[in-house]
Amino acid sequence: MGQKVNPIGLRVGINRTWASRWYVDPKEYAATLHEDLKLRKLIMEMPETKGADIAELEIIRHPQRITITIHTARPGVIIGVKGANIEKIGSELQKHINKKIQIKIKEVRNADNNAQIIAQNVARQLLARSSFRRTMKQAITNAIKKGNAQGVKIRLSGRLGGAEMSRTEEAKEGRIPLHTLRADIDYGFAEALTTFGAIGVKVWIYNGMKYGKEQKEDAGALLRKRRDRPGPLRGDAPRSADGTQPARADSTRPERADSPESPKAESSKAKTPRAKSPKADGTQPDKADSMQPDRADGTQPDKADSMQPDKADSANAELAKDESPAAEDTKENVDVKS
Fold first, then answer.
1. Which one, 58, 69, 111, 336, has the greatest CB density within 10 A?
2. pLDDT tens per residue across span 88-126
């Protein structure tokens, strides 16, 4: 058998808080609890609060006084003309309680998204003999379109439409993950005392997931917290404990071997060139043999490929001899004879 659990009571301490906040001695706990129940019943049954759409009552007990916060969609009805109604409510409650009572009014901004207010509206329409199916569909449509709810479920039980046998009817739209504890699910219950019996109205509204306390804070408070945080901003390097900024990462790169400051370059400068070893016949090796590098395939380059400095000088000398005046005279004589 499935056990039906109140969604608000299941989530108290997770993403919900207590409607009554106080602490007393264990011996006085029962009497204080019944006093809270009495206060809630008195407020809901007063003629001054009739039609005020009260969503929630918070009771906070202090050592010398009791603070009651009334969450309502129509605060003007409770306050009255120049605060006349709220004074009547305070004086009536004071007769039943010994401590001083302080009443605060808090307005519910989005009444179409509050489960308790929706349940009261549906019950009020059922008392006016409205069609229960049309009433349910209309309430669900308003909650999703105007209240921006992600899921709504309404269940009615009793002699619906004045039928002889009581039954349960349900209308649902969207998703309502009741087993997900971090889901923000609001629950409301109301009764319609009709001439043919009582009809119970239950409403579940799903408003998305709550992942932490930051969900309750506005964007301005979060931005202020981030600005006041001493940590680095995006793109800044993390600062050390004394507040100074460490050197950049590129300053720690190893020095290149060809840079003049590197130790490898200094060691290469200190090296002396190799001495040429004499050939087997006692003569010194040619420059081309000693200085020419090996080819890519490992073989020595041909002598013709590289211009040796000695041979180049001798060729230039021969050309200079040919261009001398004596050579020019012999050329002229040959031309004359021909």
1. 111
2. 999 999 998 889 999 999 999 899 999 999 999 999 999
The pair of three-digit structure tokens given for residue 50, joined into one six-digit string: 């009739």
Q: Which one-letter DSSP state was computed for residue 11?
A: T
The answer to whether the pTM exceeds 0.85 is: no
Residues 182, 14 contacting (CB under 8 angstroms): yes
- The rounded distance, in Å, linking the Cα atoms of 232 and 226 is 10
Rounded CA gap, 71 and 87, in Å?
A: 17
Scanning the chain, the segments in alpha helix (DSSP H) are: 7-10, 29-45, 75-79, 84-94, 115-127, 132-145, 219-228, 263-270, 287-291, 309-322, 325-337
Question: 19 is written with which tokens?
Answer: 């409607």
* Residue 181 clears pLDDT 90, i.e. is over it: yes
Q: What is the mean pLDDT of the chain?
A: 78
Please state, in angstroms and rounded to a whole number, the distance separating the CA atoms of residues 98 and 39.
12
CATH number for 113-209 (one of 1.20.1050.10, 3.30.1140.32, 3.40.50.2300, 3.30.870.10): it is: 3.30.1140.32
Label the pairing between strands 197-209 and 151-158. antiparallel
**Do residues 9 and 185 lie in contact, with contact meaning Cβ atoms separated by under 8 Å?**
no
Half-sphere exposure in the Cβ direction for 72 (13 Å, CA): 21
How high is the pLDDT of residue 306? 47
Cα end-to-end span (Å), the chain: 137
Quick one: pLDDT at residue 29?
Answer: 95
Q: Over the stretch 72-93, which tens digit does the pLDDT of each residue have?
A: 999 999 998 888 999 999 999 9
Indicate if the pLDDT at residue 293 is higher than 70.
no
Q: Which helix (H) or strand (E) holds 106?
A: strand 100-107
Q: Is the dihedral of CA 92, 96, 101, 105 positive or negative?
A: negative
> Which residues contact residue 147 at a Cβ distance below 8 angstroms, ignoring those fewer than 6 apart?
110, 112, 113, 114, 205
